[in-house]
């Protein structure tokens, strides 16, 4: 089985956590190179293992069922975009001490940078540069603390979901943004720490985009500026 392991050349610089990633069929090691990125992982001492298997034929469709049945005894944190189906992933409260689900309102399945080069390995629709990546990085670090520092009370925020109407459609605010709420029904900011621009379909021609910033309601981990530099060598084995 092909593999590639990237680790600090000095073992003492490792935090002892290995992130195992099966490659995506289009972007390859997307977690390492596109979403979390090497700067975030390696500057914090994570080890990355790219393993040559695919989950395409045996996907985890309902992790909460496995947690409730005892087939998996760890913790699961899922981050999803607004565009993706979250039917089986919404937090049903069956494993409150081991499961979290977070949805990022306004984000597509694949973010489309407006200035993206034409040689990207995935289609670019030039629709919106909004991305779930900042939330993904914050919740990844929260999940690591949740697993490794449980005795310190590092419990992540409550799961979130998109508010829905009686007909099952997504509830939206006055400018068209999907409304995010936690499991208790408390409204949450659409994008933690980021402005919520007016939805293009609801914008009056010639009017400026409405925006809000809610910093105080963001998790402390998300507000902390991460170290992005890599100051030590990384050793790779394959």
Describe this structure in words.
The protein is α/β, with parallel strands linked by helices and 238 residues long. The protein has helices at 30-35, 38-43, 63-69, 133-148, 220-223; strands at residues 3-8, 18-21, 47-51, 76-81, 99-104, 160-162, 180-182, 187-188, 234-237. It is 16% helix and 16% strand. The chain is globular, with a radius of gyration of 19 Å. The chain starts with a strand and ends with a strand. Residues 192-232 have low confidence and may be disordered.
Gist of the model:
It is built from 5 helices and 9 strands, in the order E-E-H-H-E-H-E-E-H-E-E-E-H-E. The protein is α/β, with parallel strands linked by helices and 238 residues long.
Order of strands across the widest beta sheet? 2-3-1-9
The shape is globular
Work out the radius of gyration. 19 Å
What percent of residues are in strands?
15-25%
Give helix % range: 10-25%
**Average predicted confidence as pLDDT:** 77
Number of strands: 9
- End-to-end separation: 10 Å
Question: Which residues form runs of ≥5 with pLDDT under 50?
Answer: 192-232
Order of helices and strands: EEHHEHEEHEEEHE
SS field, number of helical segments: 5
Structural class determined from secondary elements: alpha/beta
What does the main sheet amount to?
Answer: 4 strands, mixed
């Amino acid at each position: 089985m092909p593999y590639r392991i990237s680790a600090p050349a000095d073992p003492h610089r490792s935090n002892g956590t290995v992130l195992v990633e099966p490659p995506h069929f289009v972007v390859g090691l997307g977690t390492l190179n596109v979403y979390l990125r090497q700067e975030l992982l390696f500057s914090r001492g994570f080890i990355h293992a790219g393993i040559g298997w695919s989950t395409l034929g045996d996907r985890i469709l309902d992790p909460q069922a496995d947690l409730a049945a005892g087939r998996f005894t760890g913790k699961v944190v899922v981050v999803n975009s607004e565009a993706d189906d979250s039917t089986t992933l919404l937090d049903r409260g069956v494993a409150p001490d081991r499961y979290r689900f977070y949805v990022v309102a306004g984000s597509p399945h694949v973010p489309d940078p407006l200035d993206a080069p034409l040689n990207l390995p995935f289609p670019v629709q030039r629709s919106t540069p909004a991305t779930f990546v900042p939330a993904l990085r914050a919740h990844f670090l929260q999940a690591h603390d949740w697993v490794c520092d449980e005795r310190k009370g590092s419990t992540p925020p409550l799961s979130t979901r998109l508010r829905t109407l009686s007909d099952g459609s997504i509830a939206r605010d006055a400018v068209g943004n999907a409304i995010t709420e936690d499991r208790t029904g408390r409204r949450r900011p659409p994008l933690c720490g980021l402005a919520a621009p007016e939805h293009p379909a609801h914008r009056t021609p010639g009017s400026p985009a409405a925006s809000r910033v809610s910093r105080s309601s963001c998790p402390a981990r998300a507000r902390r500026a991460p170290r992005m530099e890599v100051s030590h060598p990384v050793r790779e084995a394959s």
